[in-house]
Amino acid sequence: MSTPSGVPSQEPAQSRFATTVQRLVVLQPGEMPALLASFATLFCMFASYTMLRPIRDTMGITSGVENIPYLFWGTFVAMLVVQPVYGWLTSRFRRTVFLPWVYGFFTANLLAFYIWFNVQEDHTWIARSYYIWVSVFNLFVVAVFWSLMADVFTREQAGRMFGFIAAGASTGGLIGPLISGWLAVPLGTINLLPISAGLLAVSLVFMTRVIDWHRIHGTIVKGVDTDKALGGGVWAAFGQVVRSPYLLGIAMFVFLVTWISTFLYLEQQAFVAKLFTTRDERTRFFSEVDFWVQCLSLLTQLFIFSRLFKWVGLRVMLVSIPLLMTFGYALFALVPAFTVLVGVLAVRRIGEYAITRPCRDSLFTVVTREEKYKAKSLIDTFVYRGGDALSASLYKALTGPLGLGPSGVGWFGAFISAIWLVLSFNLGKAQERARVASEGAGTASEAASGGG
Hints:
Strand content: under 5%
Number of domains: 1
Number of strands: 0
Order of helices and strands: HHHHHHHHHHHHH
Structural class: mainly alpha
């Protein structure tokens, strides 16, 4: 089909694309721009991060495997410093101001690390600083993004759209490891940093589109200024979490996630340090694992998540990965081999990206707007890295003075996973009660307004 000027029309292609998206996600009129802009934001941001993650893991080994638990504590202290700054930004400034500041700050940091690596020959302390910085970076940029998603979309929209949006992470996660794997050896690990910085800057452009969409549609639907500053104190997030049993439950959920992840991660690092001798070989290995994890995560997010959410609901989705990890850790305890370890860790990461993370973020759709930015950020960053630090120290104690081997680590992990399973089930029930209560309050308010 052509236009009168002879230029082929793009309408059929656009129509086919829209039809394809509609087959994957049930959309209401006007939701497509927000969905695609959200997907693109996460795609670029996660491509940037997954280029950095293999470098971070390599730097962790460079600084000494035995020092990784100390790096986790360094990350926790960094979170303690950064969290009040983020709280101050959200209290004083609109989203259109503080969100670009967060992403722009980390983009500038990437370029600064690139210069630092090139002007100083001894990379030991740079590697340690970089490891801590990336651990702060990835949690903050991801937490900020999903805080925005929980604010922009309702719970009903989250059930329909979060799986597809989360696929942006897996799609970007395919590109990042591919770039790292292809270029790590010919270009050198350090020269990947400017490419990552460029992708992060592009993600900010798409994020502004999401904010613009919500400013229009959010104001119309909710009758409020969706971009106003949140107000409150710098330390308000701590009070919000302590006062709310529901938020405390989510915090404990995240805390247990870190324990499940850290034990597997440190076991993998110990194996990789023995099997691979050079920095670039380790970066390539981590990139290849990341690539396949993101492939399977993407397939799950695009074709399984929304259907499962509709068929079985949030509660079953929340408990599915804890159940798998209970059996996975038990399998590693029985067969403590490197291939089994990599497989269990891959299942954990696929489940985290494709199921656990979207479900966890859906839990925040029933809390207040201030809690979505402040309490959620505190849980996703400070609590997360606190769990990392404590579990890393416990792992060092169990495998060091107490002499626990891989099988013992596996059985301990299975025990923690079982506790996580019970908590996940109860959180699903609590979220359902909060949803019903909020819907009931909304109906009563509408009835009172109509009566007036």
